[in-house]
Amino acid sequence: MTANHSPASLHRRTSRAIVADRAATIVLWGTAAFVLLLLGTIILHFALAAWGVVSLGFIFGDPSDTALGGVFPVFWNSIYMLALTMLIAVPVGILGGIYMSEYARETGPLGLVTSAIRFAEEAISSVPSIVVGLFGLILFVDTFRWGFTALGGAFALTLFNLPLMTRLSEQALRAVPQDERQASLALGATKWQTIRHVVLPLAIPGLVTGVILTAGRVFGEAAVLLFTAGIGTPVHYDFANFNGFGLDFNSGWWHTSPWSPLRPATTLSVYIWKLNSEGLGAFKNQLADGSAAILIGMVLIFNLGARAVGRVLTRKLTAA
Amino acid sequence: MPTTATFPQPVIRRVEVGSSIVAEQAATAPADLKISTEHVSVKYSGKTAVRDVSLEIRERSILALIGPSGSGKSTFLRCFNRMNDLIPGATVEGEVCLDGEDIGDAGVSVVELRRRVGMVFQRPNPFPMSIYENVAYGPRRRGMNSRAQLDELVETSLKRAALWDEVKDDLRRKSGLALSGGQQQRLCIARVLATDPEVILMDEPASALDPVSTLRIEELMRELRENYTIVIVTHNMQQAARVSDVTAFFTMAEDRAGYLVEMGPTGRIFTRPAERLTEDYISGRFG
Predict the structure, then answer these.
(1) CA-to-CA distance for B234 and B98, rounded, in angstroms?
(2) Which CATH number fits domain A56-318: 3.30.450.20, 1.10.3720.10, 1.20.1050.10, 3.40.50.300?
(3) pLDDT of residue B14
(4) What stretch of H or E contains B252?
(5) B121 in contact with A at a CB cutoff of 8 Å?
(6) What is the mean pLDDT of chain A?
(7) Rounded mean pLDDT of B76-91?
(8) The pLDDT value given to residue B30
(9) Cα separation, B246 vs B263, whole angstroms
(10) Which end of chain B has fewer CB atoms < 10 Å from its terminal CB, N or C?
(11) What is the reported pLDDT for A93?
(12) Lowest model confidence (mean pLDDT) among A247-261, B4-18, B237-251, B259-273
C-alpha cells in the first residue's frame, strides 16, 4: 500500500466501486420487483377474470348443465386429495429426512445405500409427472384393480413428492447447528431424544417450507391425477352418505361417499385441464377462471396457514 | 518448528515425565482417584491427534489442560465422556477409567457415562428454550416429570451456578438465548449440574466471554470444586494458574500429534517447570 493521498486517484477508485455497487443494487432490486410483479399479474389476472364468477354460491354450489352452477364437488376433492396425500407424504418424508440427515452413513457399505437413495430421489424428481401418472395407472388402477380412486391418486402424488419432501426435510434438519446436538448428547440424552426434543423443533421452519412446497405441487398437479384419481365426478356430493358403511369393500359407501378414499376424485387442477381441453358447456371459460382463482386462493391461504402453524409449533416445542 | 526440533524424541521424554507424575502423586490414596488414563491415543481417520497419554485425576480437584492450539487438549478432554464417538473416523486407543471402571467397555452405557461426566462447551450453547426448560432438559430425558421435583432441581442448579438471582423472575418466560454470554455459560453449567454429575469437563469455557464474566466463571469453578471433579481446557495461562490445582502441559510433536509434556501441581508448573518446552510455553516463547 503506497501512501498516495492524491484526491484524483482516490476519487477514481471509489467511483468505479460505487458504480458497480449501484449496478448490483439496481439489478437485484429489479429482479425482486420483477418476481413480485409476475406474481401480482397472475393474481390480478385471475382476480379480474373471476370477478362476478366466484361467489359463495360458486364455491359451495353444485355443478349445473343449464346455468353457471358451482364447483363444490371439485373444490372438496382438492382439499380431500391434499389431506390424504399429506397424511402419507409428510410423515414418510420427514422420517426419510431424519434418516438421511441423522443416520445415513457417507462411507462404507451403508454409504452405498445413501448414494442409492440420493440417486433415486433425483431420478424420481426428474421423471415427468405424466409418466408418474402412467405408472400409477398401471399399478393402482390396473394391477391392483382399484379403478380410479382418490387413494391411488394420493399414492401416486406421494411417489411424485416424496423425494422433494425427503430432501427438504433433510436440509432443514442438517441446518440445525451441530452444537445443539452435542449439547443434548453431552447431557446424557439418547440420539432419538436429541432428535425428538432438540433437532426437530429447531427444524420446524424448514420442515414447514417442505410441507408448503409439497402441498403446492399437490394442488397444482393434474397429469399424475388424470390417470389415477380419474376425471368424472358426480354433480352432487351427499356428505351424509354412509351407505353400507363398513369394512366390506364392495359396499356402496366405498365407491360413492365423498368421505371414501376408494372413489374417483377430480381435483380443481384436473377440472381446469378438462374444461380447457374438452369442455363444451356455455360457461366453460367462467368455470375455468373461477376454478383457477379458487386454486390460487387456496394455495395462498394454505401457505400462510402453514407458516402460522409452524410458528405456534416452534413456540410450543421450544417454549421460547 | 524450531522448538520441537530441540527434542527429537518427545515420546521418550514423556515417559521420564510420567515417572515424576507418579512420584508427585504417590501420597494420593487410591480412593481419591477419580479418573485415570492409560496410554490413551486418539486418531482421526488414521492421523494421530493425541499420542499415548497416561495421567491420573484426583477427586474434587481442578485439572487444567494447557498447551498451544492443535496440541490435542480438547480431543483428549472429549475422551472422558466419549464425545469422540460422535466424530466419524475417530478411534480412541488405551484405557480411560472412571472410578476404576473402563469407560470404553462394551457394556458401558454412554448415556449414563455422560450423565456422570458433564461437559461445558467453548461457545455457550443453551437450547432455544426457556431458562427453566434448559435446566430441566437432562432430568426430563431421564424421566423426571414431577413438577415439584423439577422446580426444586432447577432452583438448586441455578443457585449453584450463581445465576438464580438474575433469572428467578422470568424462568419460564425468558429464552436461554436472551441472556448475556456470561449468563448463558452459567446456564450451561446449571444445565450440567441438574444431571447430578461427578465430573465436569470444560472446554475453554470462558474464551468467548468478557473479563468480568470470565472471573465469575472462575469463582464458580472454585466453588464447584468442593463437590465436583473438574477438568478444564484453557488457552489462558493466568486462568489455569488462578483456578487449577494441577496443570498438565500438552504440545505437539513434529508429526502434529499432541502429547503430554509434563503434569504437576499448578504452583510448581508455573514456577519451576521440569521441562524446557513447558518453560518456553508459559513464559510466552512458544505457542
Answers:
(1) 22
(2) 1.10.3720.10
(3) 38
(4) strand B246-252
(5) yes
(6) 88
(7) 93
(8) 55
(9) 7
(10) N
(11) 95
(12) B4-18
Torsion, Cα A245 A251 A254 A255, to 10 degrees, reads -140
| Chain A partners within 8 Å of B81 (Cβ) | 186
Q: What is the pLDDT of residue B43?
A: 94
Contact between A320 and B177 using a beta-carbon 8 Å cutoff: yes
DSSP A35-56: HHHHHHHHHHHHHHHTTTT--H
The three grid cell numbers given for residue B196, joined into one nine-digit string:
447430578
Note whether B162 and B186 are within 8 A (CB): yes
Q: B149: left (phi > 0), else alpha (psi -120 to 50), else beta?
A: alpha
Q: How does DSSP classify residue B130? A: B
User: Which is the CATH superfamily of the domain at B10-125+198-282?
Assistant: P-loop containing nucleotide triphosphate hydrolases (3.40.50.300)
- Return the residue matching grid coordinates 381441453: A277
For B10, the grid coordinates are 518427545
A14: pLDDT confidence band, cut at 50, 70 and 90? Answer: low
Subunit contact A190:B111, Cβ cutoff 8 A: yes
The C-alpha atoms of residue B92 and residue B76 are separated, in whole angstroms, by: 9
Can you give the residue ranges of every domain in chain A? Answer: 1-49, 56-318
User: pLDDT digit string (tens) for A107-145?
Assistant: 888 899 999 999 999 998 889 999 999 999 999 999 999
CA distance B234 to B216: 16
Q: Which residues of A touch B176 (CB under 8 A)?
A: 320
Tell me how far the alpha carbon of residue B138 is from its chain's centroid.
Answer: 19
